[in-house]
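Quick one:
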Amino acid sequence: MVDHSFADPSLAALYDTLNPWGPGDDFYLGLLVGARSALDVGCGTGRLLRRARTEGHKGRLTGLDPAAAMLVQARRAAPDVEWVLGDMRARLWQGEFELVVMTGHAFQVLTGDEDIRVCLRGVRAALADGGRFVFETRNPAARAWERWTPERVREISAADGSKVRVWHEVLDGPSWGRVHFTETYESDSWPTPRVSHSVLRFLDRETLQDFLGEAGLTVVEQYGDWERGPLTPTSPEIITVARRTC
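Output:
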């Protein structure tokens, strides 16, 4: 589940370069290798599942994403993984996965209360007995959006070697926990810049727990960083491990 800009095939091809492998990926990979079956909700280009397969995972791996252009990238690299187009309404999985994950802050794309409820109900249904749901959101107290400014420009190389410059600009928020922003891509090889408009929702710890509890999920662990440090008011992340409520 990625920014709507990645519905554009040319931008989808840049996703892994824009988001290089990091500590969060290592965290989730460690969980995947210990699970016989895993569902990655909002899998994007499928990098996590591809890596798990490359490192010897023999079980069932399923990736779900609403952006067809992202799944094109995923299928090219790992045809032996099950790739599903859509959101948690696309399939009705019943107790089929030991592990369900949402990585890359995909949970924050769920901006409406009902969007969250639908997703979490689907996750609970998909979990096998004893299964875990693991995901992260940015801690709103850390105010990450204050660093999303046009002055912070990143430059990356596209597959053809051309340079692409990327920056963000907040338009509104936080309003009711929602931040509206643009992401601009510019290259000397393109006639005009490409601009996407996005909204992310920032939920605090208590609100997350309320939504999870309503869906029949119980928080069993929460961390504030990828080293499994405690969740504090200034932690950058809220990393949550939940199980089906008995």
